[in-house]
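I am sending you the entry underneath: sequence plus fold tokens. Let me know what the token row says about the fold:
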Amino acid sequence: MEQAVDLVEPVKPRLRGWLHAGMVPTSLIAGIALIWLARTPQAAWACTVYAVTAWLLFGTSATYHRGTWGPLGEALLRRLDHANIFLIIAGTCTPLAVLLLSPNDRSVLLWTVWAGALAGIAFRALWVGAPRWLYTPCYLALGWAPVWYLADFLHTGGAAVLTLIVIGGLLYSAGAMVYALQRPDPSPRWFGFHEVFHALTVAAFTVHYIAILLAAC
């Protein structure tokens, strides 16, 4: 019963999806600017990966949460929505690894996060009704994979970049906890726990975007 409720909420708060809908054009413009400003072709390639995963995340989320799609449509969009969380984690790590790590460490981190992302996508696609307490820690574990390289981020990127990376990670983690616990739920009719989760996602993305911008340009 809990899984069935988790699949499709009976009544969506009226502001459901609007935050991510607003991020669709914002992330599109910001992503293009980041790619354009990247100082090397390698940096531009890494920023392109990051930007594309952001566009997929916000675009799919806005489509999923703003519409009513029926059982099949809801199931498909839910799978894509959750898959994109793994993609944005790996996508964010890509420019950080390319720009701030040595070739050996870069390879280790990229193989780790992208293999983890693909495994996570397969898990969520095959078990869309998995309980939140099971799959939310998977997001957190993959998201904090770069923690082993914080000293390298500081050495190569400087204190500002490191601070932004950590703050963004904490914001994403706070969002994951809100999503898992479904609290706080300030206004179930208008702005519920899911909107709080989306707000923290937007804040975390913004902070990480600035960190990557500083590192790439």
Observations:
- The longest helix spans residues 70-100.
- The chain has nine helices and no strands.
